Amino acid sequence: MTTTDRTRQEILDLSRATTLYEWTAQKTMNPLVIDRAQGIYLWDVDGKRYMDFNSQLMCVNIGHGDQRVIDAITAQLQRVAYVAPTAATTAVRAELGDVLRRITPGNLTKSFFTNGGAEANENAIKIARWYTGRHKIMARYRSYHGATAGAISLTGEPRRWAAEPGIPGVVRIPDFYPYRAGKTLDDPEYTASVLAATEEIIQLEGPHTIAAIMIESVVGTNGILIPSAAYMRGIRALCDRYGILMIADEVMSGFGRTGRWFAVDHWGVVPDMMSVAKGLTSAYVPLGALIVSEPIAAFFEDRPLFAGLTYNAHAVGCAAALATIRVYEEDGLIEQAARLGEVLHVEMARIKERHPSVGDARSIGLFAVFELVKDRATREPLTPFNPKPNELGPMPAFNAFLRQHGVFTLVRWNTFFVNPPLCITEEQLLEGLAVMDRALDIVDQAIA
Ligand SMILES: Cc1ncc(COP(=O)(O)O)c(C=O)c1O
Predict the structure, then answer these.
(1) What domains can be seen in the chain, in order of their start residue?
(2) CA 300 / ligand 1 centre spacing (Å)
(3) CB neighbours (10 Å) of residue 119?
(4) The model scores a pTM over 0.85
(5) CA-closest candidate to residue 33, choices 75, 3, 63
(6) Which residues contact 264 (CB under 8 A, 6 or more apart)?
(7) Probe ligand 1: pick from 114, 144, 224, max atoms within 8 Å of CB?
(8) Does ligand 1 have an atom closer than 6 angstroms to the CB of 252?
(9) Quick check: 161 and 237 in contact, CB under 8 A?
(10) Is the omega angle on the peptide bond into residue 387 within 30 degrees of 0, that is, cis?
(11) pLDDT digits (tens, 9 = 90+) for 77-95
């Protein structure tokens, strides 16, 4: 029996009986049972269609089912699926390294290929420590960097708690979150105060002990927190002043999501290392990469790079990434994300006007969030921080409305996201937003 011969309930029951779901109490799981997908659409096994307004986990950037990527993967499988990563190399590995060198900013020149984002960050920690001879890594509270030991220790949000005490040497620096501070994005005093607090922590910790600062260029799951140009440049300047490496986590914000190849491109900031995954292959198969600057690459010319995974530089992953990057370029998807990002920005502002429960609507390219509040004047969040299931107020009903009307997205605490595949059309974007607009009436009524 193939899976598609089974009913929705049979698949749910069997997957619940035999597999463990991520980040959740098993009993509460009620996933969609997806049969197939194309472009921005998903179909469940009963034939119900959903618009994918989160690109699954903010990763299917080119959209589902692109034949060009499927063909490239198939051709690579037929040629050679896998070679041992140090003993052998392939054309796709070489060509992907070359393409990434071309599209990444500044002197980011060499890629270390991994299976995903967490492993890229894990290797960034190791490399930063070897290269600087220092051990501390700074990161922020409102961040997610992955689920492996080092990456989850750098992660600041509650998913870290179960992994504590974690790796030693992690130090927190302040978040950049103007809305919660009652400020605007471009308030120079707010930026200056966050940078001053960061510098004070550097001094108190001892700059000679700090290897790196790791930040998401735009914070993803923890609320699409968009930095000011002055903040990003200020972090780069602090790193330069104290000999600290800047690591940009672009696992979610990279590959066109913000309307540029990488979010750092908006501010002309070049990190010393950049981690990528997700949009690199648009999740057709797993692949991540840590891309390092020329001096860091040179450091390993005559020292062994003590890092590696069986599946490093997997040929099928490299072929998928090359084909995916060609799709971004052939279809002009980076430019499309920038153009539709303007449409999204305007429409989100309109929706905010109509709904008192919307405290803030933030977006950059097709990377967007609505933050919901009980009271716009006080900015009191609609749910508590890290709410229990019974503290979610109207959010489950809000999400149920979206699902019922064929829109899939991430609804987290008092936020919900608009991160569709970059191939979405303006008409499709407005159609999905119209459903969200109607669903917000449910939240408005709850706070009235
Ligand atoms: C910003 C960021 N970094 C790292 C990761 C971890 O990537 P992965 O799940 O591929 O290991 C994620 C995953 O969501 C992420 O959003």
Answers:
(1) 32-62+332-447 (3.90.1150.10), 68-330 (3.40.640.10)
(2) 26
(3) 26
(4) yes
(5) 3
(6) 105, 217, 232, 248, 250, 270, 271, 274
(7) 144
(8) yes
(9) no
(10) no
(11) 999 999 999 999 999 999 9
Which single residue is written with the structure tokens 């035999």?
18
pLDDT in tens, 295-333: 999 999 999 999 999 999 999 999 999 999 999 999 999
Name the residue at shortest CA distance from atom 8 of ligand 1: 117
Residue appearing with tokens 């599946």: 311
Ligand 1 near 144 CB (within 6 A): yes
What region, left, alpha or beta, does residue 385 occupy, with left being phi > 0 and alpha being psi -120 to 50 degrees?
A: beta
Question: Alpha carbon of 413 to those of 170, 222, 367, 399: distances in Å?
Answer: 26, 10, 18, 11
Model pLDDT for residues 378-416, shown as the tens digit of each residue: 999 999 999 999 999 999 999 999 999 999 999 999 999
Q: What is the pLDDT of residue 3?
A: 52
Distance 143 CA to ligand 1 centre (A): 10
